[in-house]
Design a protein that fits this description.
mainly alpha; globular; 16 helices; about 375 residues
Length: about 375
Amino acid sequence: MNIQFNLFNIIVLLGSLQGLILSLMLLFPGNDKRQNKYFLAAFMLMLVYDSFGTFCWSSGLSTGWLGVFDQIFPYTIILTAGPSLYLYIQTTIKPDKIPSNIILKTYLPAIVDFAFRFCLLIYALLAKSGVVFPVKAGDIDALYQPVAEVLMVVVFWFYLISAIRQFKKWQPETSGADVSMLTEQNLISKCTKALLTVMTLIATVWAATIFGSLLFNIEALAYFTPIEIILVVFTYWIGLKGYQHTRVVYISDQKAAKTYADALPAGEAEACIGILKKAMETQKLFLDPTLTVNKLAEKLNLNPRTISAVLNRELKKGFSEFVNEYRINEVKLKMLQPENKHITIAGIAFDSGFNSVATFQRTFKSAESITPKQFLLNYKTGIK
């Protein structure tokens, strides 16, 4: 294998490595569990995948696993770019946790492409084993390729425009905000505006490149070099700026939350705890799978910051942990009721406010130290 190294290849490779390192730092953030970090990591990993692919074809490096994956699923990873960017922007300007079902819907273009390509792979394998089909898998792939290239651009522009619209609708809260809060909101506004501006320029060049190659039947690799260089430079920029942004916001938020919690009178905190417990135990608001701090605050006519501060200071737990405790107790109660024997454990979890089986399983095992099935089996066999 003859690998060619030059200045361009080295820059691309270093950009890929930097993007990978920062993505891992975002995926394993320690105490900072903000969703926007994970969506930024997903966006960064897409750029890493693209940049490393550029390094491979420009340097002559042949990687069997990447080559096979790229042949089977050439568009799936790129189709995650728009959804990841949109979700990152949304969770940055509106920190409410997005439910798993909404996330899946947002990534639907990539999921559909993956499903189609997987079915095409099965189709090709069956044809190779002797099954006769009227149309060859290669012919289907040849028809799908230009359509997919256009779809990648269209899907990205759709989510980019959606993100821009979300940003324009965003109204930072200024009433009652302290200096640190105003500084944070100003930082979010500036960084988000800069990111969306840069992404609009990149999307324009990308669209011109793709449509130009299709209209004039250009397949030379040199034609795609400018957009690849732009993406590599962008990988450096978004990695440093995005990570710096999430860290500054997190640290600012922690300081603001601590100051707010310390200043909260003991009587107000006790009253808030009473209201929260009543909302969970009597009104059973935890049954709402889309329940967030802001939504609960609106229903109870409380300040969202007060709820978070009280839970952290008095109960030593976050909002999700507080709500999920009630959901777990509801699941346990319903699982042991004879009239619910015909309902699956997953069905009971959904009825109890969970919106994801994976989240339910993880939360249940964390709370009870056993799985839901083991809990049910222990009850039936009399083990406590």
